[in-house]
Write a structure and sequence with these properties.
The complex is a heterodimer. Chain A is mostly helical. Chain A has 2 domains: 4-132, no CATH class; 133-364, MetI-like fold. Chain A has helices at residues 18-46, 58-111, 129-135, 138-169, 175-187, 190-201, 208-215, 227-256, 259-267, 272-299, 304-309, 321-332, 335-364, and strands spanning 113-114, 124-125. In chain A, helix 2 packs across helix 13, helix 3 packs across helix 13 and helix 4 packs parallel to helix 8. The longest helix of chain A has 54 residues, at 58-111. Chain A is globular. Chain B is mainly α. Chain B contains 14 helices and no strands. Chain B has helices at residues 11-48, 53-57, 72-75, 89-125, 135-143, 150-164, 170-194, 198-206, 211-222, 224-240, 243-248, 256-265, 271-291, 293-304. The longest helix of chain B is centred in the N-terminal third of the chain and has 38 residues, at 11-48. Classes of the chains: A mainly alpha, B mainly alpha. The interface between A and B is large, with 105 and 108 residues.
């Protein structure tokens, strides 16, 4: 991410009168006061301090929207041209803060409490109980372990995607047809995929894949009976949907390599294999790393297929963290514990990805 | 007299020809095999939706040759030539889910496109400072949302939406989906805007347009292909979203993927009906994929090559 400087120089003579400035201040602080007041009233009503019956917290939402609008207007009133620039990123910032930062803080509160939505008791703070429960929950650790396997499978996906991209970038007929055909799996919804492939084509008695397996000499094909095989099957279905994604990123990278470089390699006498390993592959490293990183991020969200095909079975062998927490909530309505697990997962992801990026950085730009 | 052959292919050249040919065969073999892997599940779903029980059980594959296509699967959705004129509760149910999916996908993609384009433009043209945060930090702040696994937000949102009375509403889903695709839109659009020369806007400013005028009148039309790409990618992701929809909707705002998923367990297994339902869930995107393939590839390539 290079630093984009002040690319668009705009010099305007903003003459902001004192009145205008005062109006801006009144607007922003007034609406902020309204927001605080709304929260206070709603909080008091919730706690039965004042006798006001409110059906929900919607007023707080409206007050927030109002405050956001006033903030935008006051930016322009207070700093003129500079304020108009900040309007470009203000809406998205407010949106992300309201929908990510605020719920995350809220989640931290939930994570350390015992809160079962199906029971009437409501929420009670229980300190580190959830952490202790997590520590001795074999299924959670198992799911985390599975995620490592699933993530490692990306290397195989990457190899296949690279191979396909190389073929697509070479001189072939009907490239557009093949590109569309290879892209299609990415467009399909994982839920439909899990039905189409997982439930229907892998049906043991008459699914075409089971037939194929029998024809190939596997007597009693069962794709989800054995833990190892079940995990591999899930990996394959997920790979099927996402290989096109990596393939297209790598293809774009391949097409951006100037032809002269490969021609020079050929003139120097490098064969196909050698020019791939010594020219194409190193040049593709930055693209590869981006593709793998994005793929890892998507893989860490893997859940839909597992929820719908195996729901974690046999015995949690195919569980991903997301599907495990999903069931934890749906079967037991256990909001507090589920949130703690999710937050621990988030922390692990952030740490892993930071380490990964640091290592890549060290490796790509070595300092001697 | 036989004509004397002057030029001979040497053995080496003949060998080269044979090797070239075998290479071609291998390449097209791989291509066709992968095409089969990609397209067969789609083909299977489409044909199964026209099969009767014995056709499914005996694994018949080719319509009109192996089996006679019947509308049974589509009848269970109320979408066959025989039933299309009649009242049908299943069809209404299906259409409701379909509209829900369409509205949430279109709405959230549009919202994300508006917010994302503005942010990406601002970040690629101006210098900001929010406390310690400079442009790269702000960019990173937005892009890092991509790492956030949905499961972290799911339960807090469940509770928050309950308080806000947004559970099981389309608007609630739209907000959440916008959040999930926003980083992707920003990423693609930032790339787009950086490739547009600043001189264009400078000229527009000299001609008397304001910053916002230049953005709306000059820059956006040029960035249109990128916007289409970002929009379609968001559409794909939001149309297919299952996790949040399964948690946050129950009756009113249930989307198509949830409907597909909820059918699997109940009432035995109705292969043809399930196939028809899945087919209708994937068909819109298949059409989009075939027609707008260029844009999708462009969008995904945006991040790869800088």
């Amino acid at each position: 991410m290079s630093e984009p400087g002040d690319l668009l120089h705009v010099v305007t003579a903003d003459e902001i009168s004192d009145q205008r400035r005062a109006l801006g201040r009144v607007l922003v602080w007034g609406s902020f006061g309204l927001l605080v007041a709304t929260f206070a009233v709603l909080g008091l009503a919730q706690a039965d301090v004042i006798g006001l019956q409110l059906p929900n917290w919607r007023p707080a939402l409206y007050a927030f929207l109002f405050w956001g609008t006033c903030l935008g207007i006051s930016r322009v009133l207070l700093s003129g041209e500079q304020g108009k620039r900040s309007l470009f990123i203000l809406p998205a910032t407010l949106f992300v803060v309201a929908t990510v930062i605020f719920p995350l803080i809220f989640a931290l509160g939930i994570a350390f409490s015992n809160w079962n939505l199906s029971s009437l008791e409501g929420r009670s703070f229980n300190g580190l109980d959830n952490v202790r429960q997590m520590w001795s929950d074999p299924f959670y650790w198992n799911a985390l372990g599975n995620m490592v396997y699933y993530t490692l499978a990306i290397l195989v996906e990457y190899a296949i995607a690279f191979g396909l991209a190389l073929i697509l970038a070479s001189n072939i007929r009907g490239r557009r047809f093949f590109r569309v055909a290879f892209l299609l799996p990415l467009m399909l919804s994982p839920v439909a995929v899990s039905w189409m492939i997982g439930k229907s084509m892998m049906e043991v008695r008459f699914g075409p894949l089971a037939r194929l397996a029998r024809w190939l000499g596997w007597d009693r094909p069962s794709f989800f009976g054995d833990p190892e095989i079940a995990r591999a099957t899930i990996m394959m279905m997920d790979a099927w949907t996402y290989i096109p994604f990596m393939m297209i990123m790598i293809l774009a990278g391949l097409q951006a390599i100037p032809r002269e470089i490969q021609e020079a390699a050929r003139v120097d006498g490098a064969g196909g294999w050698r020019s791939f390993w010594e020219v194409t592959f190193p040049l593709m490293l930055p693209v590869s790393i981006t593709a793998i990183l994005i793929r890892v991020i998507f893989k860490l969200k893997l859940a839909d297929i597992i929820i719908n095909v195996t729901s974690g079975g046999p015995g949690g062998a195919t569980d991903s963290v997301t599907s495990f927490i999903f069931r934890e909530y749906r079967d037991r309505s256990n909001v507090g514990y589920g949130t703690l697990l999710a937050i621990v997962y988030l922390l692990l992801i952030v740490i892993a990805i930071t380490v990964f990026m640091k290592l890549v950085d060290r490796w790509m730009n070595p300092r001697y | 007299m036989t004509p004397r052959q002057i030029f001979h292919d040497s053995d080496v050249d003949l060998g080269y020809r044979a090797r070239w040919l075998s290479g071609r065969v291998a390449v097209y073999g791989v291509l066709l095999l992968w095409t089969l892997i990609c397209l067969f599940p789609i083909y299977w779903t489409l044909t199964t939706s026209f099969k009767m029980a014995p056709d499914v059980m005996q694994g018949r594959l080719i319509p009109f040759v192996d089996f006679v296509p019947k509308w049974k699967g589509w009848e269970s959705l109320g979408l066959s030539p025989r039933l299309i004129g009649q009242e049908s509760t299943v069809r209404e149910e299906f259409l409701k889910r379909f509209t829900n999916s369409t509205i949430t996908a279109l709405g959230s993609s549009a919202l994300a496109l508006v917010l994302g384009s503005m942010t990406a433009y601002g970040l690629s043209r101006f210098r900001y400072r929010f406390g310690f945060m400079r442009n790269p930090d702000i960019s990173f702040f937005f892009l890092s949302q991509l790492i956030l696994p949905p499961v972290v937000l799911a339960l807090p949102f469940l509770v928050l939406y309950k308080q806000l009375d947004l559970l099981d509403t389309r608007i609630g889903l739209i907000l959440l989906y916008t959040l999930t695709v926003l980083p992707i839109v920003i990423w693609i659009m930032r790339d787009q805007f950086q490739s547009i020369p600043v001189e264009l806007e400078e000229a527009a400013l000299v001609d008397g347009l304001s910053i916002w005028g230049a953005f709306l009148v000059i820059v956006l039309p040029i960035a249109l292909p990128g916007m289409v790409a970002a929009f379609i990618l968001s559409l794909v992701l939001t149309w297919n979203e299952y996790f949040f929809a399964a948690l946050l909707t129950s009756t009113d705002a249930k989307t198509l993927p949830v409907m597909v998923a909820s059918q699997t367990g109940s009432q035995g297994i109705n292969w043809w009906a399930m196939a028809a339902l899945s087919a209708s869930a994937i068909l819109p995107l298949i059409v989009i994929g075939i027609v707008l393939e260029r844009f999708i590839i462009r969008g995904m390539a945006a991040g790869a090559v800088r």
